[in-house]
Design brief:
Elements (H helix, E strand, L loop, with lengths): L4 E8 L8 E6 L21 E2 L2 H10 L6 E5 L5 H13 L3 E5 L15 E4 L17 E4 L4 E2 L2 H15 L32
Parallel strand pairs: 2-4, 4-5, 5-6
Antiparallel strand pairs: 1-2, 1-3, 6-7, 7-8
Helix pairs in contact: 1-2
The chain binds iron/sulfur cluster.
Iron/sulfur cluster binds next to loops.
Length: 193
């Protein structure tokens, strides 16, 4: 089975609200969004092979410091990604996938705790913007939680400008997937990376 490659790794806090995540930028995204922030990672073999052994080594290094592993892409090779997700779960960690698709291959969903969907469309704004096509889901609660990013964006504006603003209305949409198996994304709206 061919390996996935990763172009960058970083510990992040905002990408998965409430979790400290080790994020891997996976190489080989085929979507080619205009304005992509990581176009250097488009070649499939850019960076380093993310073998199971290397991932395990990194998870051991961050043991006790992280609660989640975030894959920024990789759904274009679902089998190797499944293998890596399984490894993360075996280590007792939560998992998240950021995909530019509207829904990832179904085999990945049972291995994910969080999911962000939808490609980058600059004119619609990032996750958290009112018109964004991107969505963020907690797959255990079967809930859309894009509002958490809206709140973060609003909080940042508040602290930067120290102005009082009207509070942002929050909404959440119940995911109409099969509650127990998380095997489909029927009913989800488009999102982006
Ligand atoms: S989905 Fe994300 S990584 Fe892929 S091209 Fe679009 S912005 Fe870049």
């Amino acid at each position: 089975m061919p390996n996935l490659y990763f172009y960058a790794e970083q510990v992040v806090w905002q990408e998965v609200p409430g979790e400290t995540s080790l994020a891997f930028t996976i190489s080989g995204c085929p979507l080619g969004c205009k304005g992509c922030h990581s176009a250097q990672s488009w070649p499939a073999t850019a960076g380093t092979p993310l073998t199971a052994e290397l991932l395990l080594e990194k998870l051991q290094k961050y043991r006790g410091l992280i609660s989640c592993v975030l894959f920024l892409g990789g759904e274009w090779q679902p089998k190797p990604l499944q293998q890596l997700l399984q490894l993360c779960k075996k280590q007792g960690l939560k998992t998240c996938l950021y995909t530019g698709l509207d829904s990832p291959p179904p085999g990945l969903l049972p291995l994910l705790d969080y999911l962000k969907t939808g490609r980058w469309q600059a004119e619609l704004g990032p996750l958290g913007s009112p018109g964004s096509n991107q969505r963020f889901y907690d797959l255990n609660l079967l809930q859309e939680q894009s509002w958490k990013f809206r709140q973060t964006e609003q909080n940042s504006k508040n602290s930067a400008a120290t102005l009082s603003t009207t509070s942002t209305a929050t909404t959440s949409t119940t995911i109409t997937t099969t509650a127990t198996t998380k095997t489909t994304l029927e009913g989800l709206l488009p999102c982006n990376d």
